[in-house]
Specification:
The protein has a domain of 54 residues. 11% of the residues lie in helices and 24% in strands. It contains one helix and four strands; from the N terminus they run E-E-E-E-H. The strands form two sheets. Strands 1-4 form a two-stranded antiparallel sheet. It has a two-stranded antiparallel sheet with strand order 2-3. The relative contact order is 0.15.
Length: 85
C-alpha cells in the first residue's frame, strides 16, 4: 500500500501480510474523493468507510536487466557515479 500526498509521516510503502484488510474512515468537513487506479472517482463524505483487500489475481513480472539496472542508470544520470547517460 502506497500513500499519495501523505500529510503525516507515512511517506513510504507499507507491506501487508497476506489476507489483511485495511479500513479507512473518512473524517472531513468537505467532500473527499476516492480514485481507483486513476480511472474511477467516487465522492465520499464524513463518516464513509473504504475497505481494501487484495484481489484474487497474482502479478508476475519478468526482469530483463540486472537487479541494479534502474538505480545504476539513475545514479549515472544524476552524475553521482559513472554509468549510462
Amino acid at each position: 500500500m502506497i500513500p499519495l500526498a501523505p500529510h503525516l509521516s507515512l511517506d513510504r510503502a507499507i507491506v501487508l501480510s497476506k489476507g489483511v484488510t485495511v479500513c479507512v474512515q473518512i473524517s472531513t468537513d468537505h467532500t473527499a474523493a476516492l480514485t481507483v487506479d486513476g480511472q474511477f472517482e467516487i465522492e465520499l463524505t464524513d463518516g464513509d468507510e473504504v475497505v481494501m483487500s487484495a484481489g484474487p489475481s497474482v502479478g508476475r513480472f519478468v526482469r530483463l536487466q540486472a537487479r541494479n539496472y534502474f538505480y545504476r542508470t539513475l545514479m549515472g544520470r544524476l552524475g553521482w557515479q559513472s554509468g549510462p547517460k
